[in-house]
Fold this sequence. Notes:
Strand content: 5-15%
Largest sheet: 10 strands, mixed
CATH topology: TIM Barrel
Number of strands: 10
CATH class: Alpha Beta
CATH architecture: Alpha-Beta Barrel
Pfam families: BATS, Radical_SAM
Radius of gyration: 20 Å
InterPro entries: Aldolase_TIM, BATS_dom, Biotin_synth/BioAB, Biotin_synthase, Elp3/MiaA/NifB-like_rSAM, rSAM, rSAM_sf
Distance between the termini: 32 Å
Protein name: Biotin synthase
Number of helices: 13
Structural class: alpha/beta
Function: Catalyzes the conversion of dethiobiotin (DTB) to biotin by the insertion of a sulfur atom into dethiobiotin via a radical-based mechanism.
Enzyme class: transferase
Helix content: 40-55%
Order of helices and strands: HHHEEHEHEHEHEEHEHEHHEHH
Amino acid sequence: MTDILDIAREKALENGEGLNKEELVQILNIEDERLPELLDLAHQVRIKHCGVDVSLEGIISLKTGGCPEDCHFCSQSGLFESPVRAVTLDIAELVEAAKQSEKMGASEFCIVAAVKGPTQQLLDQVAEAVTAIQEEVDISISASLGILTRDQARQLAKMGVSRYNHNFETAESFFPNVVTTHTWQERKDTLENVLAEGMETCCGGIIGLGETIEQRAEFATQLAEIQPHEVPMNFLDPRPGTPFADRPLVPQGEALRAVAAFRLAMPSTQLRFAGGTELALGDDGTEAGLMGGANAIIGGNYLTTFGRPMEKDRDAVDRVMEGGAKPGLSLNITPVGQKQNSGHGVLYDTIKSL
């Protein structure tokens, strides 16, 4: 039987072709001692097919809480007894947040609202915010406002939103265990409307909702099928008051396998670390992931949870861009096409330090 990493090397690295579901299951189950080799391969795939740049993004919640949907992981649902209460920011606060993101080196700023889909009033607010931000900040603007009609997607494109986020959250087969107030297909339809109006698509989800390894592989292949420009990778951060409050955190090694698997499923897609990264991976694991397949990160805080300080994320991005790392870690990356001089993957010392 051909070794799975040899298959991945030929398909993903040499040909830019994503692995299929059965191959991804093997990747997600790879032995601990081969994890450094897997991450090294995923990094080489990223460098060859995406380049060396690492993207930093800021994110702000225009409307927090009070959402009518029942996404079981989300503290913004108005159906659960969570500590989050409905709050709406004003335009000046959005502009200031965009300025701070730009100051820290972010190239993208995402405006988010906790809604099933936008009302016309909300779209008008977003249009006002986009205009105000563009007048004062040199940054690309994306949005995440729930399910869109074709006309709503057209309005966002005309106002200057370049990328739209709407996550699948999980595999289609597991989705009914996570959300019951709308369907997986409705989310897919939204992405098709976004593409039809010329915006880029951003679609990912959350690792650790209770899905099986097979469903995790299914999820990666379903994302690959729609060819999103960006895939946010969240790791479950169990929120008080939600149905998933007692779910366990994703173990670090499992999280790193998922990062590599998603890269091998989508060789040329921007893969962005998002919510829960600091819990599942920690500081060193985040850097290992950025040198093991991921090439983007949301800097600072998330929508309802604290992330790492934006400065810390900026420093991590700088170290990865320079090919360096924290003292005591070995993060020297083998250039694409260059043979390794030892039997270990080039991330061996890093993983051993985690």
